[in-house]
Inverse folding.
């Protein structure tokens, strides 16, 4: 028998999450999520679904009617977009500038795409001309690209790439999970055909819901494919049909039938997550999407000023850095993991480690969503500086926090 205390009520330690995500959820989102459940087709519920669609059009800066939630973490949105559009043998071009580019390739390959890649070293982004050249030589049906890759902190400029895809009649999908609401993203103006996101970065919620938006062109091409449910309904479906979407749960054609006026039963919408996702978007709509992006830029820059004042070197091409994540070189002679542990145990602050080629070389510090605030920036800088001095990396104590504070003036 397990001891009674093993089953204490959930009561996580107080943490300030200043890594590359997840971050602390806005208390308003947590309150919305604790609301009582209602039936799947209760008019109150379908109203909430419609409102959620309208609110996310503001977040994505789009008029796309097909703007909705995929239930699951950000990866669910990515997978739904890719599995719903890619037919076996389709050519997909993926420009890779970090870990999440590799994820897009991995999923596209599982969809039986012919995947072509181009790469830049970590810490850089693509020149649009290089993407234009690759499109002309590969002639893909789809370009799949990350906007902000938290693994490298880089932000790929998309406006020109959208123009290029539009000109060559290539569908353009973007994973904006880490960048949306913290950096400009203009779905319609930039000709993005599909964009997916998640709540746990700048949207200020928990992971578990993936907002997506689809252009007319993209949704029409998804709709033109065969969907299992139609097959079941019409008893006409044949196995091995190339036009079949190879997923039931992530079949956007069926998810559209569920979110659209038909209200055809698919899954049971994750009601509590929808309440949370709706509140994330409502907070941003109240603040204004442009103001929300500007807030991330201000607090991100204050963090940069503070880190530089401490004498720390920053990673990557700073002209193309995401506003909401900063890569910081771990100084020579300092144990990066020991710093993270002291920050967590003595200050309750979490900062991020890093993956792959950057492992052991940089920390990643996030300033995003509910945590993109003056107090969180100043507290994190003061704590990091204290820990570094404690371990022998000598700075003028207080210089980092003062630099950020002065920047705010
Ligand atoms: C953080 C992040 C994700 C997260 O995916 P989850 O399924 O929510 O863990 C996806 N894409 C990018 C670019 C990210 O930075």
């Amino acid at each position: 028998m397990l001891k009674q205390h093993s089953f204490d009520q959930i009561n996580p330690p107080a943490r300030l999450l200043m890594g590359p995500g997840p971050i602390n959820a806005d208390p308003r989102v947590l309150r919305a999520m604790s609301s009582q459940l209602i039936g799947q087709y209760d008019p109150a519920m379908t109203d909430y679904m419609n409102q959620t669609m309208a609110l996310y059009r503001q977040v994505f800066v789009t008029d796309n009617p097909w703007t909705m939630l995929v239930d699951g973490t950000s990866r669910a949105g990515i997978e739904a977009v890719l599995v719903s559009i890619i037919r076996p043998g389709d050519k997909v071009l993926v420009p890779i500038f970090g870990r999440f580019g590799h994820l897009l390739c991995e999923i596209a390959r599982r969809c039986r795409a012919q995947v072509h890649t181009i790469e830049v070293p970590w810490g850089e982004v693509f020149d649009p001309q290089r993407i234009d050249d690759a499109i002309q030589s590969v002639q893909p049906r789809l370009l799949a690209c990350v906007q902000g890759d938290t693994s490298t902190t880089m932000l790929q400029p998309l406006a020109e790439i959208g123009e290029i895809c539009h000109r060559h009649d290539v569908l353009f999908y973007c994973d904006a999970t880490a960048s949306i609401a913290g950096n400009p993203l203009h779905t319609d103006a930039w000709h993005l055909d599909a964009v997916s996101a998640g709540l746990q970065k700048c949207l200020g919620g928990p992971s578990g819901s993936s907002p997506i938006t689809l252009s007319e062109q993209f949704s029409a091409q998804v709709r033109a494919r065969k969907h299992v449910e139609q097959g079941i309904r019409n008893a006409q479906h044949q196995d091995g049909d190339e036009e079949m979407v190879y997923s039931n749960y992530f079949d956007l054609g069926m998810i559209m039938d569920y979110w659209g006026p038909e209200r055809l039963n698919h899954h049971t919408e994750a009601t509590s997550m929808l309440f949370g996702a709706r509140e994330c978007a409502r907070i941003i709509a109240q603040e204004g999407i442009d103001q929300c992006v500007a807030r991330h830029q201000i607090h991100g820059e204050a963090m940069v000023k503070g880190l530089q004042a401490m004498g720390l070197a920053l990673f990557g091409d700073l002209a193309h850095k995401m506003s909401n994540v900063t890569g910081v070189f771990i100084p020579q002679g300092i144990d990066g993991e020991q710093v993270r542990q002291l920050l967590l145990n003595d200050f309750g602050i979490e900062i991020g480690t890093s993956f792959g080629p950057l492992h052991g070389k940089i920390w990643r510090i996030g300033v995003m969503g509910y945590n993109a605030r003056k107090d969180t920036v100043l507290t994190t800088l003061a704590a990091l500086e204290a820990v570094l001095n404690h371990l022998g990396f000598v700075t003028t104590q207080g210089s980092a926090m003062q630099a950020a504070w002065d920047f705010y003036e």
Summary: The CA atoms of residues 132 and 164 lie 6 Å apart. The pocket of pyridoxal-5'-phosphate is lined by residues 21, 73-75, 100, 146, 149-150, 175, 177-178, 198, 207 (CB under 6 Å).
